[in-house]
Amino acid sequence: MTNGDRPWEPPLAGTETEHLVGALERLRTTFRWKTDDLDAAGLRVRVGASSLTLGGLLKHLAAAEDSMFATKLRGEPIGAPWNTADWDDVHEWALTSADDDAPEQLYAFWDDAVERSRARLDAALAEGGLDQLVHVSGPDGQHANLRRLLCDLIEEYGRHTGHADLLREAVDARVGEDPPAGWRPKAY
């Protein structure tokens, strides 16, 4: 098996940047595999008392991608479709409003946000690497660096990929840590 069969696999002995970006890409890929190729009913399945759905997670992580690499990185507005909603917290709204969206729209939200994030992250890394300070700052005015943003998004995906594992298993019994070799997301 080659890395061409599993392009999402992080390098075995890469740089810090390669490992962090590789870890994010592996989580993105696993998350997308867990949510792939479902109809509206599948994207709305809930487990137990939880209100989480795969559709809600797709929309939430799309908003998180845009927030991380537009607003937090550069101080730019989050943009469409997030800026047209009537909500107080984009992440909560994304989780709770997804039942109103068609599957094709939910997949497009996520796929498009990830592509924007990849381009923004690549540009930022080329401009100044992981140590560069970004727009977002703490209450004391200290700015975060790009490394922190990347680690925060890895953490966000780690948490929600675990949720997606449980939800997908409840939908159709799909289990596993990684997609099969050669997997690609269904185009919508």
Key structural traits:
globular; single chain; 4% strand; 2 strands; mainly alpha; 188 residues; two-stranded antiparallel ribbon
In short:
The chain is 56% helix and 4% strand. It has helices at 16-35, 40-43, 54-74, 90-97, 103-128, 146-172; strands spanning 133-137, 143-145. Strands 1-2 form a two-stranded antiparallel sheet.
How would you summarize the topology of this molecule?
Blueprint: H1 16-35, H2 40-43, H3 54-74, H4 90-97, H5 103-128, E1 133-137, E2 143-145, H6 146-172
Antiparallel strand pairs: 1-2
Helix pairs in contact: 1-6, 3-4, 3-5, 3-6
How would you portray this structure in words?
The protein is mainly alpha-helical. Helices cover about 55% and strands about 5% of the residues. Helix 1 runs parallel beside helix 6 (about 145-170) and helix 3 (about 55-75) packs antiparallel against helix 4 (about 90-95). The radius of gyration is 17 Å and the shape is globular.
Neighbour order of strands in the largest sheet:
1-2
Structural class: mainly alpha
Q: What is the element string, with H for helices and E for strands?
A: HHHHHEEH
Provide the gyration radius in Å. 17 Å
Uncertain parts: none
Shape: globular
Number of E-type strands: 2
Rounded average pLDDT: 92
What is the CA-CA span between the terminal residues? 28 Å
Percentage of residues in helical conformation: 55-70%
Count of alpha and pi helical runs: 6
* Portion in beta strands: under 5%
Question: Major β-sheet, in short?
Answer: 2 strands, antiparallel
